[in-house]
Amino acid sequence: MLAKRKSGAAYKITRNAKIFRTIIHAIQQKKGENIVSLDLRKIPEAVTDFFIICQASSTTQVKAIADYVQAMVKDECQETPFRHEGQQAAHWILVDYVNVVVHVMQEETRKFYKLEEMWSDAGMMEH
After folding, report:
1. Residue 28 in contact with residue 77, Cβ under 8 Å?
2. 99 in a domain, yes or no?
3. How confident is the model over 50-100, as pLDDT tens digits?
4. Parallel, antiparallel, or unpaired for β 33-39 and 50-56?
5. 13 inside domain
6. Distance CA 8, CA 65 (A)
7. DSSP, res 12
8. How many domains does the chain contain in total?
9. Which of 6, 9, 41, 105 could form a disulfide with 109 if both were Cys (CB 3.0 to 4.6 A apart)?
10. Alpha helices in 10-125 (DSSP H)
11. Residue 5 maps to a domain
12. Is 57 among the domain residues?
């Protein structure tokens, strides 16, 4: 569980946090491509600390990556997602861990929505 401040808000995490590293590793294990993280901690209107974005070549792989991320985070960090969306169509599955939001997308969907451009003020790192 993430540490809590006196105010009740969760501490901001870093790229070195166990949940962050577990997500990246899970994506790599399922052969997710073009993995990047966006550091949103200095953007006041951001609702999370990090986005982790990757792409997959098919809806089957999108679903496999998202499912494996959830399984690994549950096993390694004892965390379940606050919510997840997109399981039906599997062109873009979002897995929300509050401090980290994972976006698993097909290449065409990623090119269309351009999250990296939309959040261009965020520090980006390739993984």
Report:
1. no
2. yes
3. 999 999 999 999 999 999 999 999 999 999 999 999 988 899 999 999 999
4. antiparallel
5. no
6. 32
7. P
8. 1
9. 105
10. 18-29, 59-77, 107-113, 115-118
11. no
12. yes
